[in-house]
Specification:
- The protein is mainly α.
- The chain folds into three domains: 85 residues, no CATH class; 97 residues, no CATH class; 97 residues, no CATH class.
- Helix content is 77%, strand content 0%.
- The chain has 17 helices and no strands.
- Helix 2 packs across helix 16, helix 5 packs antiparallel against helix 13 and helix 7 packs antiparallel against helix 10.
- The radius of gyration is 38 Å and the shape is elongated.
- The model has no long low-confidence stretch (mean pLDDT 87).
Length: 346
C-alpha cells in the first residue's frame, strides 16, 4: 500500500469522523450508550475521578483577581438578578411553592429551644435606633400621664375642687393656675428628657432580659409561628415589592462581592482544600456510586431528557475547530506511523 493511498485513506477517515460525530446517527448512539456510560461512571473508583490537588489548583485559579472580575462576579450578579426577576413575576403565595409537609417541619424548627441566639437579641435591642424609639414612647407616655393624672392641673384634681368651693368662678386664681401650668410644663419637658436619657437604656435592658428569659415560652413560640404564617401567606412578588431597581442593583452587587470574597478568602479555601483531600483519600478506592450512597444519593435519571439536554453541547464541542484538529491529529498519528508498502491483512 503506497504512501499516497495511505494519505488518501487518512483524509477520508478524518472527513468521516468529523461528519459522523455531529450526525443524527451519533445522536442516537449517544442516547443508546448513555445509560451504560453512566453506570460505568458510578462503578469507577472516586480516586480515578477526583484529584484533590488538581481541584485545589482549579479553585485557586478561579480565585485569581482576573477570574473573579471577568467570571465569578458577573455570574453571581446575573444569577441573583434572574432570581429577583423571577420573584417579581411570581404571583403565587409563598406557601404554594413549598412541598407537602413543609409547614409542619417549619413549625417543628420554630419550636426548638434557643432558636434565636441571646447575643443576637441583645445586639438588636441595644441599637441606638431602638433606644430612640423607647425614649419617644416613654416620653409620650409620661407627658400624657402628667396631663391626665397630675392632681394640680388635671380636670378631676385641684381645678375641679376649687370650682366646687368657689361657685362664683376662680377669677384671678384661674389665671394664676394657667400660668403655673404653663411654667410647670415648660420645666417638666427637659426634665423628662434628661431622665429618659438613662432610663430608656435601663428599660431596654429589661426588655432584653424578658425576651431572653421567655423566648421559649408558648407565647413567644406562637409569635415566631405567627410571623412565619404571615410570610407564607404573602405573594412572593409582594415580599420583594419594595425592592426597586436601585435596591436590586445594590443586592446584585453585594451578592457578587460576597461570592468573590468567599473564593478570595485564603483560610476558607485552605479549609476546603484540606476537606477535599481528606474526603478523596478516605474514599479513593470506593466506586463513585457507593460514595454517593453513603449520603443517601441514588441517582434515578431520565436518560431521554438527559441526552436531549447534553447532546447539543456535545455536538457543538465536536464541531469546534480545536476538537476537529485534535481528532485529525490522532488519525494522522496513526496513518503516519504505518510503514510504506504495508499490505492489508489476508
Amino acid at each position: 500500500m503506497s504512501r499516497a493511498l495511505l494519505n488518501e485513506l487518512k483524509a477520508r477517515q478524518i472527513a468521516f469522523l468529523e461528519a459522523r460525530l455531529v450526525s443524527e446517527a451519533a445522536a442516537r448512539d449517544f442516547r443508546e450508550r448513555l445509560p451504560a456510560g453512566f453506570a460505568a461512571l458510578l462503578a469507577t473508583p472516586l480516586g480515578a475521578l477526583a484529584d484533590a490537588a488538581a481541584i485545589a489548583r482549579a479553585l485557586d485559579a478561579l480565585a485569581a483577581e482576573e477570574s473573579l472580575r471577568r467570571a465569578v462576579r458577573p455570574a453571581a450578579a446575573a444569577a441573583l438578578a434572574a432570581l429577583i426577576e423571577a420573584a417579581r413575576a411570581e404571583r403565587r403565595r409563598a406557601k404554594e411553592l413549598m412541598p407537602e409537609g413543609a409547614r409542619a417541619t417549619i413549625d417543628r424548627i420554630l419550636e426548638q429551644p434557643k432558636l434565636v441566639p441571646e447575643r443576637l437579641v441583645r445586639e438588636v435591642l441595644e441599637s441606638a435606633a431602638l433606644d430612640a424609639v423607647m425614649r419617644d414612647v416613654l416620653y409620650d407616655a409620661l407627658k400624657e400621664f402628667s396631663e391626665k393624672v397630675n392632681p394640680f392641673f388635671a380636670e378631676w384634681g385641684l381645678p375641679a375642687l376649687l370650682k366646687r368651693v368657689s361657685p362664683f368662678g376662680l377669677g384671678g386664681v384661674g389665671k394664676t393656675m394657667g400660668t403655673m401650668r404653663g411654667e410647670f410644663e415648660r420645666r417638666l419637658e427637659p426634665e423628662i428628657r434628661r431622665f429618659l436619657q438613662g432610663f430608656s437604656r435601663t428599660a431596654m435592658r429589661q426588655v432584653q432580659d424578658i425576651v431572653v428569659a421567655k423566648g421559649d415560652t408558648p407565647e413567644f413560640v406562637g409569635l415566631r409561628k405567627h410571623v412565619a404564617t404571615w410570610v407564607l401567606e404573602q405573594q412572593v412578588s409582594e415580599l420583594i415589592g419594595q425592592l426597586d431597581a436601585k435596591s436590586s442593583a445594590l443586592a446584585e452587587e453585594l451578592g457578587a462581592d460576597v461570592a468573590a470574597q468567599v473564593l478570595r478568602d485564603r483560610p476558607v479555601r485552605q479549609r476546603l482544600h484540606e476537606a477535599t483531600a481528606v474526603f478523596v483519600a478516605a474514599h479513593a478506592n470506593e466506586p463513585l456510586g457507593e460514595v454517593l450512597g453513603r449520603f443517601g444519593i441514588k441517582p434515578a435519571l431520565d436518560f431521554d431528557a438527559l441526552a436531549a439536554a447534553l447532546w447539543p453541547v456535545v455536538r457543538s464541542l465536536c464541531a469546534t475547530a480545536p476538537v476537529r484538529a485534535w481528532i485529525a491529529s490522532m488519525v494522522e498519528e496513526f496513518f503516519d506511523g504505518l510503514p510504506d508498502g504495508i499490505s492489508p491483512p489476508a
